[in-house]
UniProtKB/TrEMBL annotation:
Keyword Mitochondrion attributed: no
PROSITE patterns: PROKAR_LIPOPROTEIN (PS51257)
Beta-lactamase-related domain sequence ranges: 98-422
Keyword Nucleotidyltransferase: no
Name of the featured protein: Beta-lactamase family protein
Coiled-coil stretches: none
Stretches that traverse the bilayer: none
Signal peptide: 1-37
Annotated keywords: Signal
One Pfam family hit: Beta-lactamase
Amino acid sequence: MTIPALRTATAVRPGRRRLSAAALVAVVGLTAGCTGAAGTGRSGTGAMAAGSSTPPASSAATAAAMTSSAGTSATTATSGGSASTSVFPVDLAAAVDAAAQKAISESRAPGVIVRVSDDRGVFEKAYGTADPATGTPATVTDYFRIGSNTKTMVVTTMLLLVDQGRINLDAPIGDLLPDLPEQWRSVTARQLAEMRSGIPAYTGTQAFLTDFEADHQRAFTVEELLAYVADADLSFAPGTDFAYSNTNLLLVGMLVERASGRTVADNLQDLFDKAGLTHTSYPLEGGGFPEPHLHGFSSLTADGSRQDTSDWSLSWGRSAGAAVSTAEDLATWVRILADGSLLSPDLQRQRLAVVPIPGNPDDDGYGMGIVDAGGWIGHSGDTAGYSSQMYTRADGATLIVLAATDDAPQPGADGRVLTASAAIAEAVSAVLTPQTPFHIPEVG
């Protein structure tokens, strides 16, 4: 998500395209000014050894000399960062590494985590420092704020209730939420999830931005956030156009709570348990950010000064973008998101029946809390100090980027302005899948 500056019938509706599910996952977690401890010691492919840190010069030389053939792991040292595990063929690993390092240097990000995988293996590496002030190395197991990737999770909780018959995707949301502003009541749950409601984004109002910048510890309620746009006109008639709006996901969260009789947090915890996401959480307040985590920085402050955002409240984002996760968990999640294993086959087909995103290539589309970026299936997320991409393909290539940043956009090769995470993701994908590289859609 960005602070101001993703059916009952089986058939695909006109103008929609079906997406294929994908299998493997690549994760690039980028940190700019992030603070984190050395590896947490979680086991598994790509996990850091307990207490790992930057090796001494002699160890680094030995590690750098280690190479691998396909399917054989090798550990390499990173400059100013922690060790990494790679089971890519050595030439491919070197090419991914070089592309990542070049993009990282251009983004000026002090700490980065890259994890990519396809049928040739897995590459995972941490670059630079998690905290420039202390020199603490970044590790592949650091936690980070995933922004609008939260939307994929919250929409999934709603779709689980659809499968249970407790929410009707095509009924007016006013049936369950009669106290909403009159102009919103005819909108459907499907239109909310597809960003086709026409309800404006509260994060796009000057009133919200002023309040946000004045007090980063403020505990916003849903009602306070909705009030910023409650009297605004719809941007278009529901279902007739596309406009990315965080307000949609606040309303999805309200539907989930009303239909289930339980909080969004409780519904998400059930989802995390079902999906095996043991390092993913939904903390609304700054103190809930697990350690070790990355520290992002932002100038979205009253005086324009650059501040550490890692203790800022996430109550302003709530179901639109308040989740925290790790590269490993997102690798698991994006597979589940793409293959629809938690949903009925019919509902997953509907979810993946995307509509075009105006102003983007014809092969870009948005479904119910999911993006198709030219065959890369997933979502992106931006929140104060953190930027992320998580995408996977039907051919097994997968790419996820989670970034703690300075909110500074980066120029793309074609003149587009990109977040640092998007620039690194695009650079790495050009090596991973040169015939079908990832490009970030512009969705708002």
